[in-house]
Amino acid sequence: MAEETKKRKAEHIRISLNEDTQARKTTTSFEDIYLIHKPLPEINKHEIDLSVTFLDHTFAAPLIVGAITGGTSEATKINATIAEAVEELDLGMGVGSQRAAIEDKELEETFAITRKKAPTAFIIANIGGVQLVNGFGLKEVEKAVKMIEADAVAVHLNPLQEAVQLEGQTNFKGILKRIGEISRGVDKPIIVKETGAGMAAEVAEKLEDVGVKAIDVSGAGGTSFAAVEYYRSKRREKNFQHKLGNIFWEWGIPTGISIVEVSQTVSIPVIASGGVRDGVDAAKALALGASLTSLSQPILPAAVKGVEEIKNMLSLLIEELRTVMFLVGADSVRTLHQTPLVITGKTAEWLRIRGFDIEGYAQRGGN
Ligand SMILES: Cc1cc2nc3c(=O)[nH]c(=O)nc-3n(C[C@H](O)[C@H](O)[C@H](O)COP(=O)(O)O)c2cc1C
């Protein structure tokens, strides 16, 4: 089993590096979000404070590298490189699913390297929600935490991926109850994340009720796991899976919509991921209600090159975010959360039909 998981993880990396796995038509919906330019910002750009506190940890900027990998030899280098970069920048990161290393001790180092390279950064362990239905319990989650001395645990939800994948596990019966047991039994905060298909209000509410401490919406508009599986099945000439991957390529709730759905429904913090590609996207996500932003796929090519490449990439994104904050007159992330914005087009239509307050964003006083 571990061997199969290991092989799949290697394929995910190869495909994400070499093929176009991004949504083709579905967008994040950030294009419908307008922050309001302020030619009288009345702040000093150099004094803008980007720091945030999330789950009792202070980050230099509201940005983390989302779960990508572990469990294969190339993953060791990727995790080490990302860890070194986020440590230096005082950010955080998630590791990929730790299933393979829970099943095979020899693979532990591909994850453990993360904490060695990032002794103080916020590191998030990762386990599949469907694994909790199929035999994993407190013991396995605790093992995942210990392996990397994690600050929090992400339970990932990937029904889309499992459904289009040949070897997919599609029995999700009882998953919420199992997440609740983990939330109560593990002494680290549990974050529940999607993997590129987004989350809506109803799911967020249930997760908060069972004790989950944060939600990563991981919406549609960036990496499509149907696309990743499309390429995997193509290699094997599995015609049926290949067609499923193609049909479900665009499936999911766009990231911007997901942020509003979740942040207006629950009081636990929200992480925005799924197609966050620059500081303007990040600023919109934060103004909509996210506490942190996260990106995965764009980090991979940089992670293969080296620490400096990742640092440059993340530093540029932070500078873009700072620039937006300057242009809307927000001298702190707290102020950015109160900055007025306008939601237009299909995004506004969706949110209105679903009963969310979109006028409130436009009527904010700002500073
Ligand atoms: C190669 C690759 C592997 C991934 N593996 C995992 C994983 O093991 N666990 C998980 O929770 N998410 C995983 N993800 C999903 C990301 O964490 C993220 O939710 C998703 O890619 C959307 O963000 P993006 O558009 O910035 O890539 C993976 C993403 C990529 C690109």
The shape is globular
Q: Order of SSEs, N→C?
A: HEEEEHEHHEHHEHHEHEHHHEHEHHHEHH
Mean pLDDT, all residues: 96
Alpha carbon gyration radius: 19 Å
Question: What features would you describe in this structure?
Answer:
The strands form three sheets. The chain has an eight-stranded parallel β-barrel with strand order 4-5-6-7-8-9-10-11, surrounded by six helices. The chain has a two-stranded antiparallel ribbon with strand order 1-12. Strands 2-3 form a two-stranded antiparallel sheet. The protein has 367 residues and is of the alpha/beta class. The mean pLDDT is 96. Helix 2 runs parallel beside helix 4 and helix 10 runs antiparallel to helix 11. The N and C termini lie far apart (56 Å). It contains 18 helices and twelve strands. The chain is globular, with a radius of gyration of 19 Å. Bound molecules: flavin mononucleotide.
Give a summary of the structure in a few sentences.
With 367 residues, the protein is an alpha/beta fold. The chain contains 18 helices and 12 strands. The strands form 3 sheets. An 8-stranded parallel β-barrel has the order 4-5-6-7-8-9-10-11, surrounded by 6 helices.
